[in-house]
Amino acid sequence: MTGKRTTRARTANSSIASSKSNSTTSRSAAQNSTLSEAAKLARYRKRLFGAKWRSVMSSAAIATASGPMTACVDLDGVLLYHRSEWGTSRLGRVLPLGRKLCRLLRAKGYKITVLTSRPRKQHLLIWTHLLSHAVFVDDVTNLKPPATFYFDDRAVKVPKNWQ
């Protein structure tokens, strides 16, 4: 009888141990699955962002003069980091790709106009902030001027005359 009890005890202990290892294994698999999903999402965002950036830069790089040599660049979300809860109360940090875009447009001979919905009384402050961070622009306005390009983070391209 003693041998049977020992066998049963060993069997019970081994089943407890295997259930613990199975739960640990399933937790590790779930964590790996979550990490791989996060990694996949990060790779997708990087690829998508890179494609958008290449599209923007190729448009700017092959631009030809067909009217005014002016490029309008949105302030919040394109040139400056911005969070919607800030409203118009603060100016965020300069975004490196926004600075690079302005440099490329300037090298192509474009006049750069910053287009913002912020009130006119902030325009000098905006221009000074950009200048102090090596973003050289010609004008800051809240009135849409005629331009060759409009760079905006919220824009949706509509074909001319819907054709």
Concise overview:
The protein has 163 residues and is an alpha/beta fold. 50% of the residues lie in helices and 10% in strands.
Q: Determine the fraction of residues in helical runs and give it as a percent range.
A: 40-55%
What is the average per-residue confidence, as pLDDT, rounded to a whole number?
Answer: 76
The proportion of residues in beta strands is 5-15%
Shape: globular
The parts where pLDDT drops under 50 for at least 5 residues are 6-26
For the terminal residues, how far apart are their CA atoms? 90 Å
User: What is the rounded Rg?
Assistant: 29 Å
Query: Can you tell me the CATH architecture of the domain at 63-162?
Result: 3-Layer(aba) Sandwich
- The strands making up the biggest β-sheet line up spatially as 3-2-1-4
Largest sheet geometry? 4 strands, parallel
CATH superfamily of the domain at 63-162: HAD superfamily/HAD-like
How many individual helices? Answer: 3
Question: Within the CATH hierarchy, at the fold level, what is the topology of the domain at 63-162?
Answer: Rossmann fold
Classified by CATH, the class of the domain at 63-162 is Alpha Beta
- SS-derived structural category: alpha/beta
| Beta strand count | 4
